[in-house]
Amino acid sequence: MSTTYREYIDQLNQEHTPGFYEQFKDIFKRALGVFLYDISGNPYLDCMSAFSAVNQGHCHDRIVAALVQQAGLMACTGQKIKNDVTPKFLKFLCELIGFDQCFMANSGVEAVEGGNKLARKYAFEIMGLPMGQGKIIVAEHNFHGRTSLALAMSTDQSSKRGFGPFPEGFIPVPFNDIETMKDAVERNPDVIAICIEPIQGEAGIIIPDGNYLQQVRDLCTKKEILFIADEIQSGLSRCGELTACSLFNVKPDILLLGKALSGGMLPISAVLANKKVMVAINERGVHGSTFAASPLASAVAREAVQVILDEKLCENSTRMGKLLREGMRSIESPLILDIRGKGLMTGITVDPKISQKDLQRELYEQKLITCPAHEHFRIAPPTCANQENIHQIVDGFKNALAQI
Ligand SMILES: Cc1ncc(COP(=O)(O)O)c(C=O)c1O
Q: Does residue 194 sit in the same domain as residue 290?
């Protein structure tokens, strides 16, 4: 072969798929715990965690075992066939998170779709709004996924370019600005819901002020509109709790979970709400999905969540996150402008005069897999990361910044 193996794989990618993502240069072959191993066996510490899908660590043995066992028993039947795995999982998840009911979906964006549909149906059936009316307030710089609905919610013009027309009915307001949000609700009597990420992930780990989420909750309660919390990234130990909402002592009306709900094993997501909301959609045939709520998805999610509890990943995330931010602050580089976070969800703002790509490359040389988000860097290793891993991340940043 005249080309190297890596060039050959690059060629296949170029020929056979659109280039949505800029990829790291090496080919990876194995993932275990907090590490990704390239084809030559070199370990890289994963500070991206598949965008927070592998909080439990890559290829967790218990989740793999649950997957294999259920896959060999009964994987996917369609939801017309009753099984005894899914209802038990739903009871477990509802009781754990504190809601009456839940319906499952596949990817995170499908939970966003489900949460939106639920809110709109609630507005029609319960609030009595005429069909096709009702606005949902969203936050600027949100990220809810990549379907046309999620793009309609987005304020990122570059991700929307060329893709319209989009569904209507969203009003963006600045995140963490309760007065503008209140104003938007006052000026638009047809607002039916507010849908936000309690901690903005893709925007660069933006933590709201201490009482912001409570104020959003109070506003929703006062105006009798729904609070939808997209915790697809912030949930399930990432921020140091099962939900970021619980970190701030608030309870949304509709909660969206995804990503770590399967420990990265399968696309599994969930929409949770109490019966008084869920009743709006409790009708044969109004919603569904072939793969969602399969016995396989339910068995995997059951084990993935149990691992979070058994291994005390929320507590670990809180402790390791604190250690990480302390370590990062000790670097004292003029290139680091801000460090913030909750649990192992840390955002770092670096001086805009250094190139994000250069820093990412230097970090990669330090065997750290990182992912910039706009002018920020996200550091989100699996929430099972230990002290040694955290020191490796801090040292890697120190060395990388020194090279820039
Ligand atoms: C907050 C949030 N919502 C929704 C999504 C979409 O999830 P998925 O990529 O699984 O569709 C993401 C993905 O990054 C996310 O961070």
A: yes
